[in-house]
Amino acid sequence: MSARTDILPSPELLDFQLFDWLNIAGGEERETLSAILDTARRLAVDAFLPHYRQGDIEEPSLDVEGVRILPAIRTALARYAELGLFGMSFSEELGGLGLSFAASLAIHSNFAAANVSTAGYTMLTVANARLISTFGTPAQIERFALPEIEGRWFGTMCLSEPQAGSSLGDIRTKAVPDGEDELGARYRLTGNKMWISGGDQNASENIVHLVLAKIVAEDGSLPVGSKGISLFIVPKLLPDGTRNDIAVAGLNHKLGNRGTSNCLLNFGEGGGAVGWRVGMPGQGLPQMFMMMNEARISVGMGAASLAYRGYRQSLQYAQERSQGRPAGTKGGAPVAIIEHPDVRRMLLQQRVYAEGALAICLYCAHLLDQGGRDAEALLALLTPVAKSWPSEFGVIANDLAIQVHGGYGYTRDFDVEQLWRDNRLNPIHEGTTGIQALDLLSRKILHSDGRALSLLCARIVVTARRAETDSRLAVFASSLLDFWQEVEGVIEGLSGRGPEAFDDATLFLRAFGHGVIAWLWLDQAVTATALAQTAFRSSLLYACRYFFESELPQARCWLSIVARHSTLVRSMPDEAFA
Ligand SMILES: Cc1cc2nc3c(=O)[nH]c(=O)nc-3n(C[C@H](O)[C@H](O)[C@H](O)COP(=O)(O)OP(=O)(O)OC[C@H]3O[C@@H](n4cnc5c(N)ncnc54)[C@H](O)[C@@H]3O)c2cc1C
Predict the structure, then answer these.
(1) What was the pLDDT predicted at 5?
(2) Ligand 1 centroid vs 270 CA: distance in angstroms?
(3) Residue 293: its pLDDT value, please?
(4) Residue 205 has pLDDT above 60, yes or no
(5) To bridge 236 with a disulfide, which of 207, 224, 364, 399 should be the other Cys (CB 3.0-4.6 Å)?
(6) For residue 524, how far is the Cα from the chain centroid?
(7) Angle formed by the axes of helices 505-529 and 474-494, to 10°?
(8) Tens digits of per-residue pLDDT, 36-66?
(9) Atom 35 in ligand 1: which residue has the minimum CA distance?
C-alpha cells in the first residue's frame, strides 16, 4: 500500500470496528461490504485526494453565471455518482444500494479523510434526499429526491440566516401561500439565508434547496418562535427549466473547507421564489431534527476522519524526521523524533482521539440501523457526543499533528495545517458545541425520564463485567465503573437546580464524552482479546491502556469542576470583561 493510501482509515481498523466489534454483517455480506469499501477507498485515493490542496487554494468564484468550483471537484463527484454512491444508504426501491448507515458511514470516512470539502457535497445531497424521501409526497420524491440519489442534482440545507444561527426560532424568511399543483402546496418565499454550503455550484444539473421559513397568516402576521417554522423545497431550476427567484448575494471566504462553496442566498428579490411545502405547516423543525441524528453523526465522522489523517501523516513524519538525542545522552547521531517521549505522547493522543471518534460514530450509526425503543433512546443520548466529541478532540488532534511537524507544520508545505483549518468548522456547524452540551445535559439528561442514561450505564456495566475476566483489562474495568459512578453523582447534584445547572454544560459534555469513549475503547479491547493474536490486536490494547491511564484521569478533573456547582462565571460582574 502506498504512503498516500496509508493516510485514510485503514481497512483493518474499519473491518474490525464494523464486523468484529459491531458485528454489522457476517459471511458473504461481510465480503461484499469489504469489497465495496475497497472500491470506495480506491476512488477516494484516485479522485478525491489529489486535489485536496488545490481545492483549498483555488476557492469557488462567483460571476454572472453563478458559482464556479474547481473542475477536479466536479470530476470526482461525477465518478462518485457513476459508482452509485450517492444512493448507497437508500433503499433499492429508491434506486439506492440499500447499505446500512454504519456501512455507508465507514465508506464516507474514506472520502472525508481524502478530501472533506469535496465529500461535503455528497453529505449534503444525501441528507437532503433523505428528508424528502422520508417526509415528501410521492410526487416530490420522484421529482426531487430521485435525481439526488442518482447524483445528477445536489441538495442544500437552508436553515441559518444572518441574525439566526443557533436560535432558529428567530428566522425571518417568509412563505406566502400560492395555490396547489401536482407537487403539493405551493408558496412564494422571500428572505436571506446565510452560510449555505453548496448554495450554488456548477457541478450538478440542478440544486434542491430545503428551506426553513414561516408561513404568513391571512392577517399578514408571522408565527412567533420555532413552532411556526415549516420546510420547503425550493429548486434552483423550476420543473419547466426556468430559473427560480434565488440570487447568490455573495460567497463566504472561509478559514478552511474551501472547496465547498458557501453562499449568502437571497430568495425572492424578484417577487418570491417558488417552493413546495414538505409535510405539515409548523413541522419544519421537528422534521429537520428527526434527520439531524444522521447529519450530526456524519459531521462527527468527518472530524474523526480528519483527525485520523493528521495522525497518520504526523506518524510518518515522526518516523522520518531526525532531531536531537535521547534525554541524558550526549553526542551520537540524532534520532528520529518518534523516539522522544513527548512526541510519542502527541502521537498516541491523536490516535486515541481519532480512533475513539471513529468508534463513537460507527456505534451510533449502528444504533440508528438497529432501531427500536432502546436503540433510539440511547442514540438520542449519544448523538450530542458523536457530534461534539470528535469535533472538539479532532481539532486538538490536528493541532498536535502540526506540533509534531514543528516549524514545518506551520507552513503550507505539509497538509496538517489544512487539516486543522478544515476540521475547525466541525465544532461550529450542525449545532455548536455549546448548543450540543445544553441538549445533552438539559433535554437528554436532566429534563428526561432518565431511561436512556440507565440504558447507557447498563451497557457500561456489561462491558466492565466482561473486561474483569481478563487480567490485562480488569483494572480498566474498575476505573470505568468508578468514573461513571462519579458522573451519576454529578448529575444527581445538578438535578433540581435552576438555570445555573447548565453553566458548565460544555465541561460536562467533555467529561461525559471522555467517559463514553473510554467505555468504547474498553469494549473494543474486550472484542479484540477474543481474536487471534495479531499486531493489530496488540496495538489496539496499547491504545486502550493509553486512554485509561492518560485521558480518563483528566476527565475526572473536569467532572470535579462541574461537581462544585459553582456560579463563578454567571456571577462575574461586567468588570471581569474589561
Ligand atoms: C462553513 C460553514 C458552513 C455552514 N453551512 C451551513 C448550511 O449549509 N446550512 C445552514 O443552514 N447553516 C450552515 N452554517 C451555519 C451554522 O450552522 C451556524 O454558523 C451555527 O449554527 C452557529 O450559528 P451562528 O453562526 O449564527 O452563531 P451564533 O448562534 O451567534 O453563536 C455564537 C456563539 O454563541 C453561542 N451561543 C449561541 N446561543 C447560545 C445559547 N443559547 N446558549 C449558550 N451559548 C450560545 C454559540 O455556541 C457560539 O459559540 C454553516 C456555517 C459555517 C461556518
Answers:
(1) 67
(2) 28
(3) 84
(4) yes
(5) 207
(6) 21
(7) 160
(8) 999 999 999 999 999 999 999 999 999 999 9
(9) 434
Mean pLDDT (whole number) for 422-435: 97
Confidence of residue 121 (pLDDT cuts 50, 70, 90): very high
Long-range contacts of 323-330 (CB under 8 A, 24+ apart): 323/406
176: phi then psi, degrees, rounded to nearest 5: -105, 125
Please name the residue that has the C-alpha cell 413546495: 276
Residue 11 burial by Cβ neighbours in a 10 Å radius (0-12, 13-18, 19+): middle
Nearest to 157 by CA among 301, 287, 297: 287
Distance CA 59, CA 281 (A): 38
How many CA atoms within 13 Å lie on the side-chain side of 474?
4
- pLDDT tens across 61-88, in order? 999 999 999 999 999 999 999 999 999 9
21: DSSP letter: I
Contact 234, 246 (CB under 8 A): yes
Atom 38, ligand 1: residue with shortest CA distance: 166
Does the annotation count 65 as an active-site position?
A: no
pLDDT at 2: 42
Share of the chain above pLDDT 70, in %: 99
Q: What percent of the chain shows pLDDT beyond 90?
A: 93
Task: Show the cell assigned to 270.
Answer: 424578484
Q: Which pLDDT belongs to residue 227? A: 85
Which residue is associated with the grid cell 481539532?
Answer: 395
Using most ligand atoms within 8 A of CB, pick from 126, 163, 166 the residue to mutate for ligand 1.
Answer: 166
Ligand 1 pocket, 165 CB below 6 A?
A: yes
The mean pLDDT value of the chain amounts to: 96
Q: Kindly tell me if the per-residue pLDDT of 136 is higher than 80.
A: yes
The Cα 282–Cα 298 span in angstroms is: 26
Strand partners, 188: 176, 274
Question: Could you give the CA distance from residue 407 to residue 413 in angstroms, rounded to a whole number?
Answer: 10
User: Locate cell 472525508: which residue?
Assistant: 112
Report DSSP state, residue 164. B
Residue whose Cα lies nearest atom 37 of ligand 1: it is 166
Q: Which of 457, 461, 388 is nearest to 429 (CA)?
A: 388
- Cα(166) to centroid of ligand 1, in Å? 5
DSSP of 322-386: B----TT--SS---BGGGSHHHHHHHHHHHHHHHHHHHHHHHHHHHHHH-SHHHHHHHHHHHHHH
Torsion of CA 96, 98, 99, 101, to 10 degrees: 90
Atom of ligand 1 nearest to the CA of 156: 8
Count CA atoms within 13 Å of residue 500 on its CB side. Answer: 11
- Judged on CB neighbours under 10 Å (0-12, 13-18, 19+), 575 is exposed
Residue in the structure block whose three cell numbers are 466541525: 426
Number of residues written out for the chain: 578
**CA gap 493, 566 in Å, rounded:** 12
